[in-house]
Design goal:
Order of helices and strands: EEEHEHEE
Number of strands: 6
Radius of gyration: 13 Å
Shape: globular
Largest sheet: 6 strands, mixed
Helix content: 10-25%
Strand order of the largest sheet: 1-2-3-4-6-5
Distance between the termini: 23 Å
Length: 101
């Protein structure tokens, strides 16, 4: 699933969020990308939070993301939406997870 993130001021596409959902709805791998022109305005935080709320409302209970260890902005977004680092590194990226109870 992919959603375009639009800047509220002018409606231009500012980036996207995406989720790859397991068939059984047990988990989803999520990601967010915001164009450099719009970074630092909270768009990724807001869009990621809305996406996770949408997924949870549809029964997804586990969410995970892979974030490069040096990408502090994406780590901050992950923390904001309740993901935590697991210590597992895959292809140079740290796995972050959150389980809804």
């Amino acid at each position: 699933m992919n959603w375009v993130v639009r800047h509220t001021g002018d409606g231009l596409a500012a980036g996207f969020v995406q989720a790859t959902v397991a068939r059984d709805l047990a988990s989803a791998e999520v990601a967010w990308v915001i164009d450099v022109r719009w970074q630092g305005q909270g768009l990724a935080r807001e869009a990621a939070a809305l996406m996770l709320g949408w997924l949870e409302a549809r029964g997804v209970t586990g969410v995970f993301a892979h974030i490069h260890p040096e990408h502090a902005a994406s780590a901050a977004v992950a923390r904001h939406v309740g993901l935590a680092p697991t210590g597992i590194v895959e292809d140079g990226e740290l796995r972050w997870e959150r389980t809804v109870t």
